[in-house]
Specification:
The chain is α/β, with parallel strands linked by helices. Helices cover 47% and strands 16% of the residues. It has helices at residues 2-7, 49-69, 85-88, 91-102, 118-124, 145-164, 181-192, 204-213, 223-228, 245-250, 269-275, 283-286, 289-297, 303-311, 313-327, 331-348, and strands at 12-18, 23-31, 37-44, 75-82, 108-112, 173-177, 196-200, 218-219, 233-236, 255-256, 279-280.
């Protein structure tokens, strides 16, 4: 396990254990080159501690790249708490976790993720100020899925511009996998843009609630059925690993652009997408609206300022796609290159002497 951590290139990995509360967590800081690492806390019933560690390492690296490409002065970090949030999440567990976050002395700022919500951040904040994504009643920005969906929408418009020469999504057939917070909000934006939307989600109540708001949306029973449809855009908006070899075999869409993290299930999938002529809008580029929102909260949340910055995801996505086209690399490699260049450039500035 130690060799694995050192080999992953992380600055710091903390194993958190409080026997009395039952807390078992991992906090992974990939980089603080741009500033304090920022990333959510995932509360999830992992099958093993190794699985939890692997997730923390992978997600924290992705956050470093996401924060860099979003132009934020934050490095990348992520925390995972092992357990079923419906059974094991409690005030004491969250506050115990908050003590560990506080022990990092501001090197890590946490926020919401899968299994945690703004009220949970309010509890954690009773133990540390190094937390964002809080409720509106407590000075926070509230639900970050609003700007996450807005950013994905902007990324999709940019992908449409690059592929079809127009940002218009009117009449485009878009399949969304996942009717959760981001997927449902994205659906509403696409319906307003007169797109033809098909949605799937294994949780039927989420679909029913979405259809009640958007009655013209088509619902299918599975991702397999969604992929088999005649789509222009496939939008994964649930858990990661959505684009694997089985997905590639079934995929008929020309563009992949969604809100899920870590969409590419294995190395080389980006090259296979490109070889098949599928335009992939890198996930951490287009879904950065949420982290833009929670970063803005640290300054005293201004919704218009945050939305304006998230609207800039259109330009960033277009820059990534154009770099890939002009250099012959995949869009995923182009996004990584831009993120790494910014991290290296800002890091170099630390060598400049600024006086006493």
């Amino acid at each position: 396990m130690i060799d694995e951590v050192f080999g992953a290139g992380h600055e710091q990995v903390v194993l958190c254990h409080d026997e009395e509360s039952g807390l078992r967590a991992v906090i992974a800081l990939y980089s603080t080159a741009l500033g304090p690492a920022m990333g959510g806390t995932r509360f999830y019933p992992y099958g093993s501690s190794q699985e939890a560690l692997d997730d923390a390492l992978r997600l924290s690296r992705a956050m470093a790249y996401k924060n860099s490409l979003a132009g934020l002065d934050h490095g990348g970090g992520k925390a995972v708490v092992i357990g079923d949030p419906d059974k094991h999440k409690s005030e004491i567990v969250l506050r115990a976790y908050g003590r560990f976050v506080h022990g990092l002395n501001g090197r890590y700022i946490t926020a919401c993720d899968v299994g945690t919500y703004s009220p949970d951040m309010d509890v954690i904040a009773r133990e540390t100020p190094h937390v964002t994504g809080r409720t509106v009643a407590n000075g926070g920005a509230g639900d970050s899925s609003i700007l996450t969906a807005w950013g994905v929408f902007q990324g999709m418009r940019a992908a449409a511009q690059h592929r079809w020469g127009s940002t218009a999504l009117r009449g485009r057939r878009i399949g969304i996998a996942g009717a959760g917070k981001v997927g449902s909000r994205l659906t509403e934006l696409l319906v307003e843009a007169d797109a033809v939307v098909t949605v799937t989600d294994p949780y039927r109540p989420a679909l029913d609630a979405l259809v009640a708001r958007c009655p013209h949306v088509t619902v299918v029973d599975s991702t397999e059925e969604l992929l088999a449809g005649d789509l222009d855009v496939y939008s994964p908006c649930a858990m990661g690993g959505a684009i694997g070899r089985a997905t590639l075999a079934a995929l008929r869409a020309e563009i992949v652009c969604g809100g899920a993290n870590n969409q590419l299930a294995e190395p080389g999938i980006d090259r296979e997408l490109a070889a098949r002529g599928v335009l992939y809008a890198p996930d951490y580029c287009v879904n950065s609206g949420g982290v833009i929102q929670i970063a803005d909260e640290l300054r005293g949340f201004d919704p218009e300022r945050a939305k304006a910055r998230a609207t800039g995801i259109f330009d960033t996505t277009l820059q990534v796609l154009e770099l890939a086209a002009s250099t012959g690399v995949t869009t995923a490699a182009a996004a990584d290159r831009l993120a790494e260049e910014r991290i290296a450039g800002v890091s170099r500035l630390r060598a400049l002497h600024t006086g006493p």
